[in-house]
Amino acid sequence: MVKTRLQNQKPVNGRLPYAGGVDCFRQIVRQEGVRGLYRGLVPNLAGVTPEKAIKLAVNDIMRGVLSERLGTTPDRLPVAYGALAGATAGLCQFVATNPMEIVKIRMQVATAGGSTVPVTALGIARQLGFRGLYRGTAATLLRDVPFSLLFFPLQALLAQKAQWALNGSREKPSTLCVLAGSTVAGMVAAASVTPADVIKTRLQSSAQPTPAYSGVVDCAKRIMSTEGPRAFFKGTVPRCLTMAPLFGIALMMYDMQQKILGW
């Protein structure tokens, strides 16, 4: 919620509505209550499960295919091929990600500025229609493909380094090492693609400027000309604080599941 509000805010009479993440958090609680912080939770919960399932499954499948062709194991796959597997995973996940993101964003900005018009996830989905749910797909891919390209090989590398540092072994990383590697990799990847996330948020928001953004390039040019380069990193801190534990926990649970099931 805080990330979306920070990324979508625009100067009013030369001043931004929020001074930073803490100020944004306080204003939301004061004006909308604690419940306001969880606006957009339903589409987020509905979309995050298939999104992560697609991302993790495709990455594993691609790592298996590539390692077989190279005559090695997935754990020893070269970084460049790990990045290719991750990028493919990021490319495939937009099927679930885009509809979830656009509905969530529209719910989160609906009450910005004191609006009291009630909105629901189903109402927004009906209003947008099938094609509308995939508005901003290019920006979503611009964020998710580089994110996965960075995250997966970095996560594998850091988890293996942690395994060596903590256990003095080059065997498959322990669950704790997977958690550590995934958390750090999630933070690095999230921070790296924040500019694309800002553009995506602006394109998918219902609060469009006049005239509305015509696409990724137009949006980027207008942000740069009116707000400067710093605007592309709005919401970096709350985004990192969300994505780091999210991917740390997700990869840890996925690793535990594989070990339990003997995969």
Question: How would you explain this protein's 3D organization?
Answer:
The protein has 263 residues and is mainly alpha-helical. Helix content is 72%, strand content 0%. The protein is built from eleven helices and no strands. Helix 3 packs antiparallel against helix 4 (79-92) and helix 4 (79-92) packs across helix 7. The longest helix is centred in the middle third of the chain and has 31 residues, at 137-167. The two termini are 37 Å apart. The mean pLDDT is 90.
Notable features of this structure?
single chain, 263 residues, mainly alpha, 72% helix
Number of strands: 0
Look at the helices and sheets and give the structural class: mainly alpha
For the biggest sheet, the summary is: none
Low-confidence stretches: none
Shape: elongated
**Beta-strand proportion:** under 5%
Average pLDDT level: 90
Q: Helical stretch count?
A: 11
- Output the radius of gyration: 20 Å
Taking the alpha carbons of the first and last residues, their distance comes to 37 Å
Which H/E pattern describes the elements? HHHHHHHHHHH
Q: Residue share in helices?
A: over 70%
